[in-house]
C-alpha cells in the first residue's frame, strides 16, 4: 500500500478520478435530459451589481456567434457610457437604442418619463415581433414596469408570441412576479458588499 | 382644487416631482461622499447565472473606454465559445488566455488540472503586477481556489500589491471568505429558476 493510499488502496488522485467520474455521469445524464431547443427569456433582477453587465456579456456572446441583436436601454443613466461606446461599433449586427431620459429622480418629470418609456417599448415590441432578431436585450425594463410606465400585459403578450428561436434578456431590480413566472431563467443579483458604500466613486469599466 | 389633487393641492405629477427631488438629493449626497478614486476588486459568486457574463460585460465596458485588458479563463468549458470568438477580435487591446483543461469532472485527472491551473495563475500574476493592464478578468478563479489548485495567499498578496488604478474581476461559485473580505464589490448570483432544469438545452448567445 503506497503512501497516501486509503483502506481500499486508492491514492488521493485515484479518489479524485473516481469522484470526477461519478460527477461526469451525473452531468452527462442531466445534459442528455435537456433536449428542448428554443429561444429563452432570461431575467436578471435584485439589488446587486451585474444585472446589466451580464446582459451585455450575453450580447458579446451572441455577437461571437454572428447573431443579429437588438438593444433597448429603458433608463439612460449618467452611467452606462462604456458599453454603448463599444457596442455601437457593431452597427451591422446591433441595433442600439438608448430611449430613457435618465433615472426618474434625475428627470423629475413623470409625464416625460412615461412618453420616453412608451417610445422605448414601441421599439422593443417591434424587435420582439421580428424573426430577424436572434437576441434582444431590454435593459432596465423592470424599472419601467415597476413604475407602470410600460404595461406588463403588453410585455407578457409580446414575449409569448415572439419568434421561437429568439432570446430575450430583461434586466432591472424589482422584476414583477408574472414576468418571473413567464421567464425561463431568472437570477437574483444579491449585494454582498459594494465599493460605493465604502466611499469609492463609480469606476470606468466597472460601472461606467 | 383640481381633479386628482390631494389635500395639499398637489396633483399626482407634482407629488412625483416632490418625491423625485428628495430622492435626487439623497443620491447626490451619496455620490458626493464617494470620493475615493482607485481600481477595485469585484467578485461575482453564487450558484446562479451571470457571474462570467457580467465579467465579460465589464470587459466590453472597459474596451469602450480604450482600456488595455487581460483575460484568464481558469476553466475552459465546452461552454464559453461565443465570448472567446468575440473578444479575440480585439487583440490589440485584450490579452486572452484560456488556460484550464475543462471542468474537473471532464478531465478526471487532478494532476493535469493542477498543472493547468498553475500555468493560468502564472499568467494572471504577471498581469496583476503590470500597470499596463487597466482591467483584468480572472474567470472561474474561485473554482481553482476552492479546489486548492491555486494558492489563496498568493492571490491575496498579488491583489494587495497590484497597480493602484487596476480593476480586477474574479468569478466563480464558492468565493473564499478571505477573498470576499479583500474585495471592494461582491455580488452573489442566486438561482431563482434555470431553463436547463426545465429541460432546455444550453443556448448559443446565452450560455455558449
UniProtKB/TrEMBL annotation, chains A, B:
<keyword id="KW-0067">ATP-binding</keyword>
<dbReference type="Pfam" id="PF02572">
    <property type="entry name" value="CobA_CobO_BtuR"/>
</dbReference>
<dbReference type="InterPro" id="IPR003724">
    <property type="entry name" value="CblAdoTrfase_CobA"/>
</dbReference>
<keyword id="KW-0627">Porphyrin biosynthesis</keyword>
<feature type="domain" description="Cob(I)alamin adenosyltransferase N-terminal">
    <location>
        <begin position="13"/>
        <end position="31"/>
    </location>
</feature>
<dbReference type="GO" id="GO:0008817">
    <property type="term" value="F:corrinoid adenosyltransferase activity"/>
</dbReference>
<comment type="similarity">
    <text>Belongs to the Cob(I)alamin adenosyltransferase family.</text>
</comment>
<dbReference type="Pfam" id="PF12557">
    <property type="entry name" value="Co_AT_N"/>
</dbReference>
<dbReference type="GO" id="GO:0006779">
    <property type="term" value="P:porphyrin-containing compound biosynthetic process"/>
</dbReference>
<comment type="function">
    <text>Required for both de novo synthesis of the corrin ring for the assimilation of exogenous corrinoids. Participates in the adenosylation of a variety of incomplete and complete corrinoids.</text>
</comment>
<keyword id="KW-0547">Nucleotide-binding</keyword>
<keyword id="KW-0169">Cobalamin biosynthesis</keyword>
<keyword id="KW-0963">Cytoplasm</keyword>
<dbReference type="InterPro" id="IPR027417">
    <property type="entry name" value="P-loop_NTPase"/>
</dbReference>
<comment type="pathway">
    <text>Cofactor biosynthesis; adenosylcobalamin biosynthesis; adenosylcobalamin from cob(II)yrinate a,c-diamide: step 2/7.</text>
</comment>
<dbReference type="GO" id="GO:0005524">
    <property type="term" value="F:ATP binding"/>
</dbReference>
<dbReference type="InterPro" id="IPR025826">
    <property type="entry name" value="Co_AT_N_dom"/>
</dbReference>
<protein>
    <recommendedName>
        <fullName>Corrinoid adenosyltransferase</fullName>
        <ecNumber>2.5.1.17</ecNumber>
    </recommendedName>
</protein>
<feature type="region of interest" description="Disordered">
    <location>
        <begin position="1"/>
        <end position="25"/>
    </location>
</feature>
<dbReference type="GO" id="GO:0005737">
    <property type="term" value="C:cytoplasm"/>
</dbReference>
<keyword id="KW-0808">Transferase</keyword>
<dbReference type="GO" id="GO:0009236">
    <property type="term" value="P:cobalamin biosynthetic process"/>
</dbReference>
